[in-house]
Amino acid sequence: MAQTAQLILDDKTFELPVIEGTEGEKAIDISKLRDQTGYVTLDIGYKNTGATKSAITFLDGEQGILKYRGYPIEQLAEKSSFIEVAYLLIYGELPTADQLKAFQYELSRHTLVHEDMKKFFDGFPSKSHPMGQLSSLVSALSAFYPESLKPSQTNEELNQSIIKMVAKMATVVSWIYKKSLGHPVIYPQNKYDYVTNFLNMTFGQRTEDVTIDPVVIDAMNKLLILHADHEQNCSASTVRIVGSSDSNIYASVSAGISALWGPLHGGANQAVIEMLEKIKEDGGDTDKWIAKAKDKNDPFRLMGFGHRVYKNFDPRAKIIKKACDDILEKLGINDEVLEIAKRLEEVALKDPYFVERKLYPNVDFYSGIIYRALGFPTDMFTVLFALGRLPGWIAQWKEMKENKEPIGRPRQIYVGATDKDYVDIANR
Ligand code: SDX
Fold first, then answer.
1. Is beta strand 71-72 parallel, antiparallel or unpaired with respect to 65-68?
2. Does residue 338 lie within any of the structural domains?
């Protein structure tokens, strides 16, 4: 017999259905609560509220488990490639060799952006933040693909929009970087795979052929895989709710980029490096900064620490921390802030403030150290997070549309003024 939850309200007992997911998660289905009881629920920040049923990513915050379409992140980070993981997230299964080849070919045919896009690039002040540029440029792509604006696209039309979005993101990201240096942009080359192409457009030169270090290619694939999806996080939820109004893919992804920009979310990877640099300049006194993070009167937070879901460890942080030592050694880089980061982690994990609040390093704590070692400037870190998260956003957006979910529109409890009459300005 199906499990139910009993709710006793105003001397009446209501039975609410309980649903269980494939990994044993349970939820009370309140989709008919207001009709049955006249009540809504309140859960500011949605800390206890599921917004959807999804088959894309599973997280277990207590066990530190992260799986994409059932595959453990540890295996994908070790054995897969970013474009294979993108296929897995978007289409639901690991591709066969032929499917992967066809996907890569399709992407390679759409990596160019319309030459008129350069007018948008030229419009930005040279030091404007790359995330502000990225959200504007991605939204501007819709101007060149009016077919993507058509609500209720056919599956083929939808897939074409998806291919174009994935393909052009790497070009737009690399061109933002090149423009920040005042360098000429590098055009995509079909002989390269997706990640190598991105790195060549980013670090390549017009004047000579540049060979991208395989260590850098491998590290970039791993980082992009680790960022590819994370179920209903702030930016994925934003993409879903914007898409639920039948907004096109470019507008939906642009909204996700804006949500990711915040330092409490994807912007944390930039904030972590800025924090570590500040601690280094201040003499590297980690105890002083840990005390500041604990002080309620001090706005300072230990960036890269804490997570809404992970309450033991973020499996991605574990993988990235290990990769840090490996990559820096291979590249012959000794970065002092890595040692500061390790000391901060060591001190924090013994400190009751962090232990009681279950605050551990998250995906952003070590990732910036690798991005920096690969040659990226700090303000590009969150853009790289967006490049990695794109397949996840698209998978979430596609699933919401395929499941014909209704437009997202939460309720509220009104606590403002009641029954006021208008007063002429002369009498106020
Ligand atoms: C990402 O959701 C996702 O999946 C996101 C993400 C993804 O892949 O999409 O994993 C990516 O966004 C990772 C998180 C990156 N952000 C940061 O590193 C910023 C620093 N961390 C925090 O601001 C915070 O931990 C959050 C935003 C990540 C989580 O915030 P919550 O779940 O709302 O928790 P909270 O702010 O209510 O904190 C609970 C307590 C509070 O203390 P008390 O009021 O109980 O005394 O913990 C404290 C907080 O003050 N706290 C911290 C802290 N994080 C939480 N104290 C010091 N330093 C911190 N970093």
1. antiparallel
2. yes
- 325-345 tens-digit pLDDT: 999 999 999 999 999 999 999
Query: 306 CA distance to ligand 1 centroid (A)?
Result: 4
The single residue of 229, 314, 335, 364 carrying the catalytic annotation is 364
Q: Which residues constitute the domain of residue 42?
A: 4-65
Same domain, 104 and 174: yes
Same domain for 42 and 83, yes or no, is no
307 is catalytic: yes
Nearest CA to ligand 1 atom 39: 357
Q: What would the pLDDT profile of 132-145 be if each residue is shown by its tens digit?
A: 999 999 999 999 99
Q: How far is CA 32 from CA 17, 37, 48, 190, 410, in A?
A: 10, 9, 18, 52, 14
How far is 154 from 157, CA to CA, in rounded Å?
Answer: 5
Give 392 Cα–ligand 1 centroid separation in angstroms. Answer: 21
- Residue 318 has what pLDDT? 93
Q: What is the mean pLDDT of the chain?
A: 95
> Cα dist. 248→1, 245, 260 in Å?
42, 9, 19
Same domain, 207 and 139: yes
Q: Is the pLDDT of residue 216 over 80?
A: yes
User: Which position has the higher pLDDT, 126 or 66?
Assistant: 66
* Strand 57-60 with 71-72, pairing: unpaired
Q: Which two tokens stand for residue 262?
A: 């915040």
Specify if 415 maps to a domain. Answer: no
Beta strand 12-20 with 57-60 is: unpaired
Marked catalytic residue, from 129, 227, 307, 314: 307
Render pLDDT for 88-118 as a digit per residue (tens, 0 to 9).
999 999 999 999 999 999 999 999 999 999 9
Q: Report which ligand 1 atom has the smallest distance to the Cα of 362.
A: 13
Instruction: Tell me the C-alpha distance between 364 and 310, whole Å.
Output: 13
User: What is the 308 CA–ligand 1 centroid distance (Å)?
Assistant: 6
At 210 the pLDDT is 85
- Say how far apart CA 243 and CA 237 lie, in whole Å: 10
Whether 364 is a known active-site residue: answer yes
Q: Is the pLDDT reported for residue 424 higher than 90?
A: yes
